[in-house]
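Bit of a strange request maybe. I'm writing a small parser for structure token strings and I need a real example to test against, not something I typed by hand. Could someone generate the tokens for this chain?
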Amino acid sequence: MKTFRRITLAVIAILMVVLAAGWLFINHLQHRAVPDYAASVDLENLVDEVTVIRDSLAIPHIYAKNAEDLYRVVGYVTAQDRLWQMDLMRRITTGQLSEIFGEDMLGTDQLFRAFDFSGKSARVLDTTDPGIIKCLEAYSDGVNQFIQQHQKKLSFEFALLGYKPEPWTPVHTTNLIGYMAWDLTSGWSSDMAMYKIAQVVDDTLLQELFPWEDDFKTRYVFPEYMEEHPELVMNTTIEQAQKVIDKLGIQVFEASNNWAVSGERSETGMPLLANDMHLGFMSPGIWYQMHQVIEGELDVTGVVLPGQPYVICGHNQDIAWGMTNLTVDNLDFYLETINPQDSNQYKLNGKWEELRIVEEKISVKGQKEPVTRINKFTHRGPVVSTFKDVKDKTISARWIGTDYSNELRSVHLFNRASNWEEFRDAATTFIAVSQNIVYADKQGNIGLQAAGGVPIREGDHVMVYPGDTTKYDWGEHDRVPFENLPYTYNPESGMVSSANNRTVSEDYPYYIGTWFALPNRIDRIREMLEEKELHSVASFREMHSDQLSAFARRLTPVYLDVLTGNVEGVAEAALAELRNWEYHMDPALSAPLIYEQVFAEVIRVVYEDELGDVFPQLMDNNIIARFHIYELAISLESAWCDDIGTTDRVETFSDNIKKAYGAAIDTLVAWAGEDVMQWRYGDIHTLTIEHPMGGVGIVQKLFDPNLGPYTVGGSFHTVAPYSYPVGTNYNVTHGASQRHVYDLADWDRSKTVIPTGTSGVPASPYYGNQAEMYIDFKYHDDHFSREAVEANMKYKAVFR
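Reply from user aminoacidic:
Good idea to test on real output. This should exercise your parser:
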């Protein structure tokens, strides 16, 4: 018995030691990458000392005496906070995800290798100003010195995935431009959805899905541009260029907002500028807040994309700028004819041409030998049909992102511009990442410039062009000249604004795109700008938080007209909530939930019977349905409304609304019970900001990298957006990736916030520490003057 007891105690002791060792190991993994922001750093290749001051949110303010020292420390500091995020984006652009995540990523790797970001980056760097090259090399050196110094203190992701980062190079930095171009302007899913829809419906139904309505066409970003430049109409040789039907445009994210007012419309007598770029939520967030100073040469603050050294959007001593997606159609698909006798040949102008064949060797985690994948290319670009589940056709893609552009030059010069002319010169090389860029300066000027590559091509902009002819090709130089891109400077209204809405009127001689955002957000922005004679930082903050839906304001009265007197019980109680609603997408209300669920069911009722198995493609890309339903709210008639499953009558949009409303109420009752007063939009419309590895249960339990869930309001159709996959669930996936309000009367009065925090290390107190502030529409001061920075200093490090 004593022996058994001794053995038991020994086993317990061993287990406790093992558990303690395990806890210590996990704790070490959690905390080993948390930096000491007050520790000074010895850094090779510095010419002078560099000071890094961090405030209470750990936002770095970097003070250097020359450019190379600045960017060397910028590289080190960014890696200190965001190295694994940088490496993840690098692997996306180089097609190396399978190496750390396994064979499920093979298709993604093959796709991104087909677009050869690194090949384009090498071309860009070969022609870039040597001064910029030195900045990029210094940045890479700073990143690499951090990696070398912290081989045993890398963040937990490297340990769990079993690898260490390779050295960083300027090519990796330049690749990130391709990543942002793809992330912002790709038309993959929408174009293929329309192509599949075209296979199952007749042309009459197909044509109805394109945005025809005159009301939609009148909300321009540049309303006065064609009045000021009528000569452009006579200079074009492409008669079809302004036709916007029969073509699906390019966009992944439906939203971004920017606006500015002149001093005549502000309380201070100087301009105000606001920007919030809408991207996918993730943790850490896409942006890194940073302030960069070179004594006597540069003083710029704003948001940086980790992996590249420059402020993408922000302000310097003289100007402020912010961006929204131009929504340009810069990707085309071509239906290729393949030689039945030789699958490596395609027909072009009556001859068989050889496809270019590239053999990709892709390393895969857990496999000794690399996997071989074949990429094929026409003269236009890669064959992509295997990527998009189009099994019976071969489709190639032509994308402007593979053309020469130099956005790094642009942002380098934005950071240094002091006036409108220098700002516009910087924008001339902003091509792959097409944006509407808002501007304001300390001289009291405001403006808005469309910057991007707008292709000029033949045809009527169908979903897929015939690939057996060069008629519909466009080359690297077949673009609208920069001087002919729309812009406005000091308009009489004293206001400029954009929200991905239609760029310019139909008189503009060049085709820009088709699927601009509906005018819901721009209508609200301009309503609010007009409501006040004089604006302030506070009124701009209120605008950022606005969740009144112009979309609901348009559709709800139609629903009420159809349903009043035709429902009872729970359905009538729910209708009463809509009747008394003022269209605010408030998470505490039931009406927004009712409205959103009815909208999802309307999409289902109107389109599912005609589309059958293709319907999920429409639901995944419901911007197509949004346009059509937006128009149906006025016309109330469409061939789509008829239920093909019935033969005794022809259904109308009113019939669709009744059916959709009944289905929506049934769903809501199943979710939340019959007491409508207990329904709350925010109970199911929530935001969880997820880490790329946060979906793995054990990772979430041990490292807690996800943020939330948070109860949120808004939707894709409000100025303060919280977008979700309509018809699937209410889990928010997209929204404002940052909010900035710049006060040109006093930069220190500017306000900003991001959804996450400075650090990418979950154990850090600065990981996600701005999330609740962001959710509550609060901001922190954007310290700019040296006096304000030092007065709010929490950490100081000297790099020697």
